[in-house]
Amino acid sequence: MDTNVQKRRENKKSLRVKVISLGNAEVGKSCIIKRYCEKRFVPKYLATIGIDYGVTKVQVRDREIKVNIFDMAGHPFFYEVRNEFYKDSQGVILVYDVGLRESFDALDSWLTEMKQEMGSQANMENIIFVVCANKVDLTKRRVVDESEGKLWAESRGFHYFETSAQSGEGINEMFQSFFSSITDMCENGGKRPTPEVNVGFTKEQADTIRRIRNSKDSWDMLGVKPGATREEVNKAYRKLAVLLHPDKCVAPGSEDAFKAVVNARTSLLKNIK
Length: 273
Ligand code: GTP
Ligand code: MG
Known about the structure:
The chain has a six-stranded mixed sheet with strand order 2-3-1-4-5-6, sandwiched between helices. It starts with a helix and ends with a helix. It is built from eleven helices and six strands. Strand 5, helix 6 and strand 6 form a beta-alpha-beta unit. The radius of gyration is 22 Å and the shape is elongated. By secondary structure, it is α/β, with parallel strands linked by helices. The longest helix is centred in the C-terminal third of the chain and has 18 residues. Bound molecules: guanosine-5'-triphosphate (GTP) and magnesium ion. The site of guanosine-5'-triphosphate has 25 residues, from helix 2.
């Protein structure tokens, strides 16, 4: 065969993509990548200094994908180093430690940092995100459960995986799904295909359930100031009831959140003249 024709065919089949890892320091980003690329686990913590770079080749269907992996340091100290590496990524691995709530709560600020650094060219719609709820092997210290993590991820259109870099659980599945979605996106002209399955609930519903779960008292739960009037409590209650009513909201945890809101309203009204 003409070597040029052959080359063109090979080029069509091969693809080069850039992915980055994000999340707080020590959540296990480097270990997840190492587990996948080198099939091993390092128990000793070796903080990433600024950024680590690696290349791996993977096969997705009939295509060979050359993946450039930029493994970011999570420590705030390295912000100046990592900030220039956000641009032109096709995929993001967002990691938190299921035993550290603050690492889960920090996911939003990682997205904010990314958006900010990508500037005007930011189009988060055309990037594949996977969320890794990592260190699931440490069951006794777990504080963020599966439904909470899934809710956060799926309400944003992100894939969710429970992983352990230590045991290897979920790692291959996560990377296979990640690379396959990136390939689908590239074959779809660089646009993230519309998900086949609509999750059936909104980001507002998911975020509200999360806020309710983490609220410190009944005032906080209803989103009113301590000392609010009956009218203010009722108004806030009605808004939440419409959003979370089990007949209308199918988000995981909505039933418990709805009950909690009803109880919060009842206990507040008891004490307001
Ligand atoms: P930075 O580079 O500082 O941002 O941290 P990182 O997110 O890359 O964390 P790293 O992969 O270096 O892992 C931090 C620590 O957690 C190390 O001591 C790892 O051995 C440990 N670790 C990572 N993943 C797991 C896991 O799934 N289970 C357990 N038990 N420990 C893990
Ligand atoms: Mg690291």
